[in-house]
Each structure stands twice: as C-alpha cells, then as structure tokens.
Amino acid sequence: MDLKLLIILALILALPVCIFFVRRYYLRQLRNEVTRAQKSEQIKSVFLANVSHALRTPLNSIIGFSDIILKEKPGVLKEEQLTEMVTHINHNGHQLLYFISQLLELSSFEGSMLTFTMIEVNLAELMASYRREALRDASPNVSIYIRTTLSPHCKATLDTNLMHQLIMHLLQNAVLHTKEGSITMTYERERKGMKVTIIDTGDGVPQKLQENIFSILQHEDSLTLANQTSGLGLSICKAIVDALNGEIGLSSEEGKGTTVWVWIPCHMRDMTKGI
C-alpha cells in the first residue's frame, strides 16, 4: 500500500482517539469550574450567614436595652439598672464598630490592586512601638517581651502601614486570648526577608479550628463576638501576607498557648556592619 495512504489511514484512525481525549479534557475542566463555582457560592453563603449572625447579636442587645429604657417611665428604673443597660449598649456598640471596621479592612484587600509605600525603618524602634501599643490593651497579669539576635541598629525596608496592621492584629489576637502569662514577639533575618513570631501562653486554639484559621470560612462560632479577632483578624493577616508575597503559619495547643509566625520578603541591613 502507498505510504501516503497509510499515513492518511493512520490519521483517520487516530482522529477519534484525539477527539475522545480532547473531549474528556474539556469535560474535566468544565466539571472543575462547576465545582469551584459551587464551592465559591457555598463559601459566600456561609460567610454571609456568619456575618449576619455576628451583626445581629450586638444589634439585638443595643435595640433591646434601648427599648426598655425608652418605654419605662422616668424613675421606674433604678440607677444601677440604668447604668448596667447603658454599659451593655456601649459595649455592644464598640464591638459592632470594631467588627464593621474589620469587614471594611478585609474588603480593602479583596479584588483590588494595592499600592505599596516602602520606607527604611529601624526595626528595634518599630517593634518597641508595637509592644507599647499592645500593652495598653493587655491584662495587668500579662507581660509582653521582645526577643531578637539582630543588632539594635538593624534596618528594613517595609510598607510600615501594612506592617503595622499585620503585627498589631497578631498581637491583639494574642492579647485577647491571654489573660495571664506572657506574650513574646521575636524577629529575625530569614532567607531574603524577616520572620516575626508571636508566642503566647493563652487559652490556645481548638484543633478543629486550626485548619481554616486564616480563612473567612470557618466554623459557625468563629465570628461570634468572643472570637472576632481570631476570625476576621487572622483573615486580614493572611490577606496582608499574600499581598506582600509572604508566608504565615500557626501552631497551637488548647489550654497552653499559640504560636503564629509570618515571613515577609524585605531588604534588611545592619548599620553597625554596613550591610
């Protein structure tokens, strides 16, 4: 048989096989897209349900206590009762404002192009300022330490606004869950950047929450008022780290404490060594 005919025959026979594999590939891609879309819709639904619950809880308290105050005739409520109700309203109002602020902060990292303002700063001074800020909210029974092997003259080129958001969310999370004991912040040069680690002796994170601790989609109780910092706060940290092309991780043992670390690529130089 002529060679050309053999080639044509081979191509004709191979064509259905090629079509089969191409069709199977695109069907698999289509199924993956459908699965991703369904998962995305599920994430959105669960997140919105959790947010709705987290918003309604303080609002119900604010409206409930204010209704009682408005409906009662003057003099019926004792001063202690009135003070307690106003305190509840004030507390829930602050919690609501904090939660909404976190939502807005998280949304600023979603679907937008961030612009970075990089400046060189002294790391010892920067970390000391974070410690002072965290101490204002910490329990009197909690000590906050800074540990490093770097020179006090070491400098790094960073976006200080994003760095402040990142480290303060981590410290606030540690402060919230540490009623007594210590919080230790370490910072070191690692690879071509800096690693910051926050170690606390607080109540720790339950094992079931650790896998998705940085995700906005967590367990049903992750967005309750008692857990807002570990809910959205750590999600914000993850968004910042991703924006900076960094890394973040957590290890925790319930009842013993939590360690959270972040690695951020940045230029560092030790002024005492000229490098």
TrEMBL record:
Query: Sorted alphabetically, which keywords does the UniProt record give?
Result: Kinase, Membrane, Phosphoprotein, Transferase, Transmembrane, Transmembrane helix, Two-component regulatory system
Q: What is its EC number?
A: 2.7.13.3
Q: What class of enzyme is it?
A: transferase
Q: Which residues cross the membrane?
A: 6-26
Domain named Histidine kinase: residues: 50-268
What InterPro entries does this protein map onto? HATPase_C_sf, HATPase_dom, His_kinase_dom, HisK_dim/P_dom, HisK_dim/P_sf, Sensor_HK_Regulatory, Sig_transdc_His_kin-like_C
Q: Which reaction(s) does the protein catalyse, per the Swiss-Prot or TrEMBL entry?
A: ATP + protein L-histidine = ADP + protein N-phospho-L-histidine
One Pfam family, short name: HisKA
Q: Which GO terms describe its molecular function?
A: phosphorelay sensor kinase activity
Which protein is depicted? Answer: histidine kinase
* Naturally occurring in which organism (per UniProt): Prevotella aff. ruminicola Tc2-24
Task: Supply the source organism's classification.
Answer: Bacteria, Pseudomonadati, Bacteroidota, Bacteroidia, Bacteroidales
